[in-house]
Specification:
The complex is a heterodimer of chains A (196) and B (148).
Chain A (H helix, E strand, L loop, with lengths): L1 H19 L14 E9 L2 E9 L16 H4 L11 H4 L12 H4 L3 H17 L22 E3 L46
Chain B lengths: L5 H9 L3 E5 L5 H13 L15 E5 L5 E3 L2 H4 L1 E5 L6 E5 H7 L3 H10 L5 H7 L1 E3 L13 E2 L6
Parallel strand pairs in B: 1-2, 1-7, 2-6
Antiparallel strand pairs in B: 4-5
Helix pairs in contact in B: 2-5
The chains are: A alpha+beta (196), B alpha/beta (148).
Chain lengths: 196, 148
């Protein structure tokens, strides 16, 4: 019984994968719910409260590679972006800095992970100052002296110092950047170093 | 090419000039590499180890240097005074808070050749926390950090 259920759910996932796979771009997308702004009009004794549809940001028409499955492939950005491309990364984040889910952005799994990692690095480098988390009312945070950093892989609070660096044949290296981005195109010709 | 008389040419070749480096948002290792090359005089074709042809290096905004990766937390600066129990290990973040100039200074000290010239070359290095530099240090030769 349990085995049959597992088999059926597996088949369902496979079928759903088929439907959301290559066939989606050729069919019309189901109409999404647009953003509305509330407008109140007073006409004598009647009050009309209306939700007027305002534009939501949509993907620009005519991508260079329409047969791509995710937005990154469609716009030929596959191995070409990094943590400093804030204009690209800010299209996949919420106003307070969190990532949007994959079913909303339409990214494939590996690109979603890469973008998530780049967004984290950009936050730690201070490149997204307008996407700070929301603080409770009237809360004034203590301004500590901030250290400048870039390409930070781990969260600063979670990292322990390397007290023993090890011998020459067995050094403990410091991680820089992210291994998810190791296939990126290098225009300077210098190899990417992930461990300093 | 303007032709100079030989006296002026000699002065231009052997004068000791001041190079100004801006450390804002730069990794301290890269600053140290540039500064150590100019302190030793390796950027000159007339370099010789004994001919004392190095220049001065002035580095400003050392408080605003940026480490890549998690080096502020990973990198540890160790020292031992020689007495028992006096082995001290501080992280780069703690050292920077205590003395913002120390990280760049230690980086340059490690990149200079380990001989008796090193102490004199460090005396020719001038490090400043912020933009305000005393008047006599402000540059005759302004050198910008190259784009990397």
């Amino acid at each position: 019984m349990a085995a049959l259920n597992v088999l059926v759910s597996g088949c369902g996932r496979f079928l759903r994968g088929l439907l959301t796979g290559p066939t989606v771009t050729s069919w019309a997308r189901p109409p999404a719910r647009w953003l509305r702004e509330v407008v109140e009009i007073q006409e004598g004794k009647t009050t009309i409260i209306e939700g007027r549809i305002t534009g939501t940001p949509r993907e620009s028409p005519n991508p260079p590679n329409p047969s791509g499955q995710c937005p990154i492939c469609r716009w030929n950005l596959k191995h070409k972006y990094s943590y400093e491309d804030v204009l690209l990364l800010s299209q996949f984040i919420r106003p307070h800095g969190g990532m949007l889910p994959r079913r909303v952005t339409g990214l494939c799994q590996e690109e979603h992970r890469k973008i998530e990692e780049c967004v984290k690095m950009a936050h730690r480098a201070g490149l997204l100052p307008n996407h700070r988390p929301k603080l409770p009312e009237g809360f004034v945070p203590k301004t500590r002296p901030r250290l400048n950093r870039y390409l930070t892989r781990w969260s600063p609070r979670s990292v322990k110092p390397i007290y023993n660096k090890g011998h020459r044949w067995n050094k403990v290296r410091m991680a820089v950047g992210s291994p998810l981005l190791k296939d990126n195109v290098s225009y300077t010709g210098r190899p990417l170093v992930l461990y300093h | 090419m303007v032709s100079l008389s030989r006296v002026l040419q000699q002065w231009a070749t052997f004068a000791r000039v001041r190079y100004l480096l801006d450390g804002k948002m730069q990794p301290p290792g890269r600053l140290a590499a540039l500064a150590s090359v100019r302190l030793q005089g390796l950027h000159k074709p007339v370099y010789h180890q004994l001919s004392d042809c190095g220049d001065h290096a002035v580095i400003m905004n050392t408080r605003h240097t940026a480490f890549s990766g998690n080096k502020w937390e990973h990198k540890v600066y160790s020292s031992h005074t020689g007495y028992l129990g006096r082995f001290k290990q501080v992280t780069a973040a703690q050292l920077h808070q205590k003395d913002p100039v120390a990280i760049v200074k230690l980086a340059i000290y490690g990149m200079l050749p380990e001989n008796l010239h090193r102490r004199t070359l460090i005396q020719r290095l001038h490090l400043f926390l912020d933009e305000d530099i005393p008047e006599e240090k402000s540059f005759l030769n302004h050198k910008k950090c190259p784009e990397v």
